[in-house]
Amino acid sequence: MSNHGDSWLLFSMVSGLTVSGNGQIDGQGPIWWENACIGTPSPALQFKRCIGLRLSGLTHVNSPRVHITITTCNDVIVSNLHIIAPETSPNTDGIDISGSVNVNIRDSIIATGDDCIAIGGGSSYIKISGIMCGPGHGISIGSLGHGGTDVVENVDVHNCTMIKTLTGVRIKTYQGGTGYANKISFTGIKFDATSAVNLSDITYRGISGTSNTDNVINLSCSKTVACTNIVVDSVHIKSAIPGRKVYGSCINACGRATHVQPYLDCLKPSTDLCNGPLS
Questions:
Q1: Which one of 51, 111, 162, 212 has the lowest number of neighbouring Cβ atoms within 10 Å?
Q2: Residues 124, 161, 43, CA angle at the centre, nearest 5°?
Q3: What residue range is the signal peptide (predicted)?
Q4: How far is the C-alpha of 157 from the C-alpha of 257, rounded, in Å?
Q5: Does position 278 have pLDDT exceeding 70, yes or no?
Q6: Which three-class secondary structure state does DSSP give residue 27?
Q7: Contacts of 241 (CB under 8 A, 6+ apart)
Q8: Residues with a known catalytic role
């Protein structure tokens, strides 16, 4: 562990590190949220270039910015965390992952003002399960293609519960960016991809929950590069407001939808439109 200018607590280049217990890290965020002019707040806890990291049991409250960042790490297991910040707190992601491989995040409660979990470029073989997410934005991949080529592969998000999230689960990309995201399996509901990043083999299966938005299934892809081989199966999303109607929409999205509520008939099944047969 060392002091570092861009984080409160930093563990760097440590192999076989275990951080566990029932203690609490309080970032005392309100002073930062209310006074944005005093500077850019730092992540509360950062792990960088660690191999074999194990993080469990802790409670993280009111980080000035991101609660936990995992950067350029390999073989990571994060479990049984409780991460809390007000729904209105700015940029208080629960866990941010970038440039990391073989990361397993499971059985945690994350209720913040931004993404519960955000997966950045250069990350692969990410497993997320048993997460109680919300309120907040949800679970996100990206943003991809910002200032270069980004790649995210082999992400599996399953058995997660979204409660009053803004976007559920989504892929975020920059217009004009390059790269690709494939072999992504989601248990979320928001898919927003509006650039030239190539998105394929995306699965939403076994999803149920509520959303703060009316457009609860949004497959919004680039007008020039279609999203291909999307599967939406056994998805049931309703409004967080009792009795309010919800709907789904698509832009240049190709795949198939079965057992979906609200009814989704906008996926393009044509192999010509999808640039190849569906698997």
A1: 51
A2: 55
A3: 1-23
A4: 19
A5: no
A6: coil
A7: none
A8: 137
